[in-house]
Amino acid sequence: MPKQGEDKPRRKRALPKEAMSRVDTAWLRMERPTNPMMITGVLMFAEPMSLAKLKQVIRKRFLSYARFRQKPVNTAAGAAWQDDEHFDLDRHVQLAALPGRGDRRVSEKRALERFVSQLASSPLDKARPLWQFHLVEKYDSGSALVARIHHSYADGIALVQVLLSLTDTKRVPDKGSELAKAWLKQDGVDVARRVGAVERYTRLGGKMFGKGVAMVQDPTLAAMLAREGGEIARELLYALALPDDPPSMLRGKLGVSKRVAWAPPLDLEEVKAVGRACDCTVNDVLMAAAAGALRDYMLERGDDVEGMTLRATVPVNLRPLEHARKLGNHFGLVFLDLPVGEGNPVRRLEHVAECMNQLKGSRQAIVAFGLLAALGMAPTALQGLALELFSRKASAVATNVPGPQQPLYMAGRTLREMMFWVPQTGSIGIGISILSYNGRVHFGLIADAKLIPDPDAVIRRFGPEFDKLLYLALMGDWERSLDSVSAYALMSEEG
């Protein structure tokens, strides 16, 4: 009790809270011990990076997004964002040592893959803002940086742009220059087309584009569209009616450990050449090569894949690419066929291309966005049931993000390679990630350790599967597109 004349102790004022969007809430609540809901990225630099330099970049650029000083909290009205009054940058940006580095039998790359695997298996501390950077100061004559950011802050496309905003297009940037987004202005339309945004909205027409933009601004419209009749309802019924993915070694009870690996990069111009020869997109070529790598791995492990088609869920951007660095989740999901039962590599490519063309004219992504918004409002038990229902219809999550086709620098250090993985949801335990940067294409895999204990056995098949397509494209008739019949004839001749 204060004595007479003394001031009464002031009650500590509660920090203000900002309601979390329904879609972001859905991703926050999807967290499971078997599938932490975070995007994991690896950036490899040609020159060493110091912790002090990294913190300087994070403080100046990453924390310019006020959201990253906030943490999710629960309120009576639902999830919300609140400033972390005890925010400490040292808790979020740390030095790291690679496990097994002293073992000469373990390469530096394998040691880094093991380290990323450990981090991808470990959930972020919910008492603090849900992100961390781990710097390996000495890696392959330079440094490596591992970033982990929770999916509730933003989708993978936005978070890749956030990470790229830490870089510059010049080793020594001009004073007061914009963050590294020149590549967006330069290659934006081409990138958007490859992501699927431009062609998608051109086909749907201006009216549907308007609805897509409105959904970004007001997620309740997405839920309404998902309930309405017409084509939207048909897409919803189609998604619900999809049979479960067939039993295979890529499905099963998940554990709590992830395994990560990435392949040597491909030449982007060679990938484009195959696309031109086969009259399809870069994305089609890469997904077909990924399907071929999975097929070969499954066959070697004794899985019967004859005639089997698996599905992957693929995120589709639902906002203009120049707004991609705005935080929040603004994407839908579509189901892409992975024809692992097809032995002819060109027929496999034709199957993927046909499926992608059908998806570009559909409203699956918009329906999925609406469902995510609805799930953000639903009771936790109902959300769990819906998540399990949809995750049974696919065996993998697949992403392909076209990045800048010019060198980038962070604190004057050359960004040599990068790779990232989005989380898997529900009972899905496989993640396929493709990212192009500076004329090269990077392919990575993240997998539940119970399903694929050694993902390197899959990713080392990616290059040879692409080489098959490249060889057939070079051997074919350059006057017309290469089809599966021509490919079969060429393989028979070589046979």
From TrEMBL:
A molecular function (GO) term: diacylglycerol O-acyltransferase activity
Pfam families linked to this entry: WS_DGAT_C, WS_DGAT_cat
EC number from the UniProt entry: 2.3.1.20
Protein's UniProt keywords contain Transmembrane: no
O-acyltransferase WSD1-like N-terminal domain location: 20-285
Keywords from the UniProt entry: Acyltransferase, Glycerol metabolism, Lipid biosynthesis, Lipid metabolism, Transferase
Keyword check for tRNA processing: no
Annotated GO biological process: glycerol metabolic process; triglyceride biosynthetic process
Catalytic activity: an acyl-CoA + a 1,2-diacyl-sn-glycerol = a triacyl-sn-glycerol + CoA
Pathway in which this enzyme or protein is active: Glycerolipid metabolism; triacylglycerol biosynthesis; Lipid metabolism
O-acyltransferase WSD1 C-terminal domain location: 328-469
GO CC annotation, single: plasma membrane
Family classification: Belongs to the long-chain O-acyltransferase family.
Protein's name in the database: diacylglycerol O-acyltransferase
Species assigned in the record: Luteimonas cucumeris
Lineage: Bacteria, Pseudomonadati, Pseudomonadota, Gammaproteobacteria, Lysobacterales
